[in-house]
């Protein structure tokens, strides 16, 4: 006996078919943005791919100059050392160093884990060593610490009005340099990217965002980075600024620490 495909008495009603609007609102089918680089520093631009990075260790290290990895204690230290050599083979061969790895030490940790600290020769590229996972039997083990002596910070600028092609080129670059490097002295701007989407005519068009990558020794908090930026003679509304780890920012009262739907100033108006 086959089951009926029609609802019986007492069965819950079938959900309605999706409407055109609900289909159009499905973000799963939304195209991914294409990043257009409008500025790339010839010396340090490639470092943008490692943002966000952090200066110093993210774990307590016995040797502060080491790069640490957390691995199961079933992995022999010698085998992990072999995996390090294989992972960084090109880097080691290019350096022509007879001793690229200065030392390697292991420390037992809870939950059957082991922290391995590796001190590399200072001539090896710190950015590559600090961001490349060591693959052991198909499993990547990412660095827990860094020996880079600088930050790579990604600043996200939103609510920017692209009014002409100049706003996607030299004019935008100069505005960023004047603010980030000259005024805030946060560091060196190494890359500026604009996320674009295809328009109705399949032409890539910017929205209201652009990304700025900064190399330096200061965080946005260190330089008291503003959350909004006024650009006179370009637009009346302020440009908003955020970064990884930045506090929530309210678009209503323009203050840190909360978002619009929890703004005390706004709630005092709509609740009383």
From TrEMBL:
<protein>
    <recommendedName>
        <fullName>CCHC-type domain-containing protein</fullName>
    </recommendedName>
</protein>
<feature type="compositionally biased region" description="Pro residues">
    <location>
        <begin position="10"/>
        <end position="19"/>
    </location>
</feature>
<feature type="region of interest" description="Disordered">
    <location>
        <begin position="1"/>
        <end position="34"/>
    </location>
</feature>
